[in-house]
Amino acid sequence: MHLSAEDKAAIGQAIEAAETKTSGEIFVLVSARTADYRWIMLFYGALVAILVPLIGMAFGLNPLTLGSVFTHWQAGGWNVGFGATPADEAATGMVLILAAQAILFMLVSALDLQPDIAAKLTPAWIQRQQVHRAARDQFLAHGLHQTTGKTGVLIFVSLAEHKAEIIADAGIHTKVSRTVWREVIGKLVIAARDQKLAHGIILAIEDSAAILAEHFPRQDDDVDELPNKVIMI
Q1: Cα separation of 122 and 104, whole Å?
Q2: Parallel, antiparallel, or unpaired for β 163-168 and 152-158?
Q3: Which residues pair with residue 33 across a beta bridge?
Q4: pTM
Q5: Are 157 and 29 in contact (CB under 8 A)?
Q6: Cα-atom radius of gyration of the chain, to the nearest Å?
Q7: Successive 10-residue mean pLDDT values, the chain, 233 residues
Q8: Which H/E stretch holds residue 49?
């Protein structure tokens, strides 16, 4: 998904039109990627390295048996040993298991070189947390909390995560329930899934304007406090 120059212009016009109806400030920000999820592959690498030997042991693999494979040989029907004691065989088996764990960890962790793979393997709840945190940070970074009347609304879209959020300032939050904003975001997400991201954002802007106009109608002395354009990061 991406926004063309025409899409950006249409979104800017939608914001301008929306703010003729309300004293609220609507701010749109689209992020290419909210977070770097490559660290998740380190977790998966450690998990695989731990679980594989445990599963092997559950099916009868043990360090003593594994070690004996490398300390005894069959030759001409004879069992040839190297003078290894059971303790030596167990130690050899443990070294082999540790080596296998290290290899498994490195192989799985190497997938962190591909951010798209790491993102796809990251649980949805972690991605939601990251998107929410990023939206909150951008809300503060762009000064939406400093608008007159505390009527700033951030429409935040994260492309890589395929997620969107709306954050409303305190003046709005006390009058508009989260359920209302979830419905607005729902329309945006459905449009984005249909490869109509710009249309979805414009719908969210229009719906937000209608909600804000009900509680915060436009006043004669209103001043435009935030840029009427989509911000790309």
Answers
A1: 19
A2: antiparallel
A3: none
A4: 0.73
A5: yes
A6: 29
A7: 89 94 94 83 87 83 64 51 60 79 86 73 88 94 89 93 92 88 94 94 95 89 85 93
A8: helix 39-58
